[in-house]
Description:
This protein is α+β, with helices and mostly antiparallel strands. The protein contains 4 helices and 9 strands; from the N terminus they run βααβββββααβββ. The protein is globular.
Amino acid sequence: MIATPDRTPLSREFFDRPVLDVAPDILGRILVRTTPDGPIALRLTEVEAYDGADDPGSHAYRGRTARNGVMFGPPGHVYVYFTYGMWFCMNLVCGPEGKASAVLLRAGEIIEGAELARTRRLSARNDKELAKGPARLATALNVDRSLDGTDACTSDATPLRMLTGTPVPRDQVRNGPRTGVAGDGGNGDIHPWRFWVVNDPTVSPYRAHVPRRRRS
């Protein structure tokens, strides 16, 4: 018999820890996106950790900017950024306030509201692909920069909330290099900070960084 996932909101204390403790522990937790059309719930299956000034792959490596300000806390808030001029990606802020770190939400399984997610992910060949990758996840949940700074640690009907769910046993978690990160930040020997649920069909494929060519 499969236990019903715990719908208790995750506490702020859960996120007020080192990002490398939070990242594997957040797998199996549930993210709820509340929309006027109804809720969408997603079970997290893949994430990446980013550790601010100590991490060359982090947006906050060179300090605070208007774009990355939410990464500096408080913990448990949502950091949303726009990338490649096309896509949004979402993160959950970790660690003590003032130290920028966050977990990028890379993939998950839609467990509620799939019919709504399908209307936003028309190219998905099946429901396993609805949130298979960080941009796809944000698209399926209708997440954009207007949600940057949202508090995800509340029992109120906020647009985004994190619930306890069912944590994944550590022997079912794997880790390795982060996807598409250049330089030392993408070196799996130095930063093996991508975490995923082993053999889960919603986990995205690993891709190494490929330099973008400038148009002549």
